[in-house]
Design brief:
By secondary structure, chain A is α/β, with parallel strands linked by helices. Chain A contains 17 helices and 20 strands. The longest helix of chain A is centred in the middle third of the chain and has 18 residues.
């Protein structure tokens, strides 16, 4: 008899028009890390919210340690030992670590006044779990680093002494060393306290680093569950997508030709961010920029786009010097930039798909008159939605209701509109599921085929290797290597990015 | 210990306190009339009515809310209470009904904001006109004087030479400060203002708490109305005009933000004290009264600009150049 701590049987949850969960089963053993994977919209989040009693299931049962439980509020779920660490931080920046950890459950004295001494002592004990007891519990959360904020978030979920801790995309805002620390902590809690984890992630390599077993969801149904030891990444992808993805990265075909040099940077520098960076992009070519977080890749991209200044060096477009001081000038010269943070920098989430797609080239829809012509707008938008396979109800749907992957397709689409000659894409598939990733790669390749030069900045090594025609490796603000896409291997790129020279100050 | 001092020094309350002390010291030397019992009491009396409202407004703004109607509610409850008194109603009953009217108006505001989901600014902006309008309707635009002597005693008595409005205001501020800082019940507003979704998940009954916060601003505006009516011995139809702006200004100077999640009663009190001090100083130094409104605005703008600079520096977006160049050894 195995020791099952949490079991869900036949969970059904429908929202108007969608069957988000369709008879899902889930079994979590005591003291294991159970990964939950699936594409966006597969039902991972809904299942999490059902387990946390934030959504009420239409059908199905939940068992904790073999006993059927009925939970009707997040509070009930906590009582049963189920606690969620949310992806979007659920902290109050202006309150202390202690008051965030014990939100609304602060120890009080007889007249219901906070007992700060006990509160801080208990918080210090919890911080010790993560070897962070040097932090003062009275420190305000807004003064903490993002990774320490995440620790507070986990402690907050831990403070109810959970049996099962649900982690929703916990690494999305962490650097590699912070991810490593998180994994050490998860293993520690698992081994020392026997806590089980449900680990939701898009990032498949992580699953193999941290999880013991995995359940795959697709279209609201459980596809399979397995021991992580017995499977590989391809198995997961095949099950998640429901078809084998061939040619995931949209490799170049023999017929594709690379044209003349389109864009060139000669010795551009700015302060400590990047120094003496030179490279060129040919038309029809995808140049990948690899390197560790903080190596200066994003800064170079933003500098070319005119979003940040350049101290020295020059930029050339088709051999002619370019002077770009503002993004508007870059756009006017046919340079597009896809920001790594699509939510805050690239898209109008409250606006419709249509409004987003036309936003940066409104004049194209006026036909020489001062007024927009709605037929042109609609035709164009429908074309985009069809061509880019944006899954949506219609072109008037608000962007915030689309999945991350589809939002990203809209963002790529908005830049196609200006008919760019050079497109800079920064982390184009962050937070995007496998199926949509592949479609975004196809889109980029299609642009390249039309003669556009593409600079792709990415921390995802497989993406860099799979998509790029040529790879530039940056380390501590300098270009330390250039490899053609055909010759590149994981090992070579990593070795270059890590650097043989001690760059000083670079993690 | 050092850490503790550093944290206290970073508190907004401390910053304003320092400014208050500086202004006080400077004024003591600048004007012989400043540091006199008479002047200090006059200063405190002048801000006592608004200080009462500041307590509830702080709680509301920490929760992320906002109430533009307090000045009008003050006038309306004042007029209502005076009307009841002139009808011969017992004082206690008239006052209680006045307070109940204020609380009910707060409940209505809170209902529209928390349950119907209207924007707090728009909801209470309507209130600002509605209750001022009702005041004019029930009074016919006339001030209501001739109130019973016993009622006037509420606001006109002195204890140890200090007028009751000052005592009432200071008491409410003390109680408000303790409750908002230390009681688990009122701490809930920080979670609501800081992260409403998270507050719900922590089991906080957000809507109820929001409505209560509006009830409190209504109730405190009514209390201020009663005290003011009693002190003046009459209900004035223009009472509390523009008060909402001064009260909100004080709360923001005191460290609250319009997004909610921060602020304290002590800070807000220091904020209103600072504004009162500056106006008092300008009076004593013979600056034209026409400058007063200007100075209130300038003080607010200065406070939020300083705050924003601090935030930008924390986020690394603002680099304040050092006066002396760094030595090379610093970088190793």
């Amino acid at each position: 008899m195995t020791d099952i701590i949490l079991e869900a049987r036949g969970i059904v949850k429908t929202f108007p028009g969608v069957r988000a969960l369709d008879g899902v089963d889930l079994k979590v053993q005591r003291g294991e890390v159970h990964a939950l994977v699936g594409e966006n919209g597969a039902g991972k989040s809904t299942l999490m919210l059902v387990l946390g009693a934030i959504h009420k299931p239409d059908e199905g049962e939940i068992f904790v340690e073999g006993r059927p439980v009925s939970v009707s509020s997040p509070h009930d779920a906590n009582e049963q030992g189920i606690s969620i660490v949310f992806q979007e931080l659920s902290l109050v920046p202006s309150l202390s670590i202690a008051e965030n950890v014990f939100a609304n459950r602060q120890p009080v004295n007889m007249i219901n006044m906070l007992d700060r001494r006990t509160l801080h002592r208990q918080t210090r004990e919890m911080l010790r779990l993560f070897d962070l007891d040097r932090l003062d519990p009275a420190t305000l959360v807004k003064d903490l680093s993002i990774s320490n904020q995440q620790v507070v978030e986990i402690l907050k979920a831990m403070s109810i002494n959970p049996k099962v801790l649900i982690l929703d995309e916990p690494t999305s805002s962490l650097t590699e060393s912070e991810v490593e620390q998180l994994f050490i902590n998860i293993r520690k809690l698992k081994e020392e306290k026997g806590i089980s984890f449900i680990y939701i992630s898009h990032h498949l390599p992580e699953i193999f680093r941290i999880a013991d077993s995995v359940t795959v969801l697709r279209d609201g149904k459980k596809v399979c569950d397995a021991d992580v030891k017995g499977i590989d990444e391809e198995f997961l992808i095949t099950n998640m997508v429901g078809r084998k993805i061939e040619n995931m990265y949209g490799h170049r075909e023999e017929t594709d030709t690379v044209g003349d040099v389109l864009f060139e940077a000669r010795g551009i520098s700015r302060g400590d961010d990047f120094r003496d960076v030179s490279f060129s992009v040919r038309s029809g070519e995808i140049v990948g920029f690899s390197g560790l977080v903080g190596a200066g890749r994003t800064e170079v991209g933003r500098a070319i786009f005119g979003a940040e200044p350049i101290d020295a060096g020059e930029l050339l477009m088709e051999g002619k010097p370019l002077s770009i001081r503002k993004p508007e000038e870059a756009i006017a010269r046919g340079i597009g930039y896809l920001s790594e943070d699509r939510k805050s920098q690239g898209l109008f989430l409250d606006f419709s798909i249509k409004a987003n797609l036309i936003a940066n080239h409104l004049q194209d829809f006026c036909g020489g008159t001062p007024f927009m012509q709605s037929r042109k707008v609609n035709d164009y938008s429908r074309g985009c939605v069809r061509d880019y396979r944006i899954i949506s109800r219609n072109i008037d749907q608000q962007l915030k209701f689309l999945s991350g992957g589809n939002q990203q397709k809209v963002l790529v689409g908005t830049w196609f509109g200006i008919k760019p000659r050079l497109l800079i894409v920064d982390e184009p598939t962050r937070g995007v599921d496998v199926g949509a990733k592949s479609e975004i790669y196809m889109l980029l390749r299609r642009l390249a085929r039309n003669g556009v030069g593409i600079i792709m900045i990415s921390s995802d090594l497989m993406e860099i290797l799979g998509v790029s025609d040529r790879i530039m490796v940056m380390q501590a603000g300098r270009v330390v290597g250039e490899i053609s896409g055909r010759d590149a291997t994981e090992e070579r790129v990593i070795a270059m990015a890590a650097g043989t020279v001690n760059g000083g100050g670079e993690a | 210990m050092k850490e503790w001092i550093a944290r206290v020094a970073r508190q907004r309350e401390f910053m304003i306190f320092v400014i208050v002390v500086v202004v006080t010291v400077v004024m003591t030397f600048a004007s012989p009339h400043f540091l006199t019992t008479g002047n200090i009491l006059a200063l405190l009396l002048g801000l006592s009515i608004e200080a009462i409202v500041v307590v509830a407004m702080t709680n509301l703004m920490v929760s992320g809310g906002f109430d533009m109607s307090v000045g009008s509610v003050l006038a309306f409850t004042s007029a209502a209470t005076a009307t009841f008194l002139r009808m011969g109603m017992p004082i206690a009953v008239a006052v209680l009904i006045g307070l109940a009217i204020g609380a009910t108006i707060g409940l209505i505001n809170g209902f529209f904001v928390a349950k119907v989901g209207l924007n707090p600014f728009v909801t209470t902006l309507s209130g600002l006109s509605i209750y001022r309008g009702l005041t004019l309707i029930i009074t016919g635009g006339q001030n209501l004087a001739g109130l019973p002597l016993a009622f006037r005693a509420i606001g006109q008595t002195r204890f140890f030479g200090v007028q009751t409005p000052i005592i009432i205001a200071l008491l409410l501020i003390l109680i408000g400060e303790i409750l908002l800082r230390n009681s688990r019940f009122f701490r809930q507003v920080y979670y609501i203002g800081g992260n409403e979704k998270a507050a719900r998940l922590s089991g906080i009954r957000v809507d109820r708490m929001k409505m209560l916060s509006y009830v409190l601003t209504g109730l405190f505006a009514a209390m201020a109305g009663v005290v003011m009516t009693s002190r003046l011995g009459a209900a004035s139809v223009t009472a509390g005009t523009g008060m909402e702006l001064r009260v909100i200004t004080a709360v923001i100077i005191g460290g609250a933000s319009l997004q909610g999640g921060e602020g304290s009663v002590l800070g807000s009190f220091l904020g209103i004290l600072l504004m009162g001090l500056i106006l008092n100083a300008m009076n004593l130094l013979g600056v034209s009264v026409y400058w007063q409104t200007f100075v209130v605005g300038a003080t607010l703008l200065t406070a939020v600009v300083i705050d924003q600079l601090g935030k930008l520096r924390n986020e690394g977006k603002l680099v304040i150049p050092r006066l002396r160049p760094r030595k090379a050894t610093d970088q190793g």
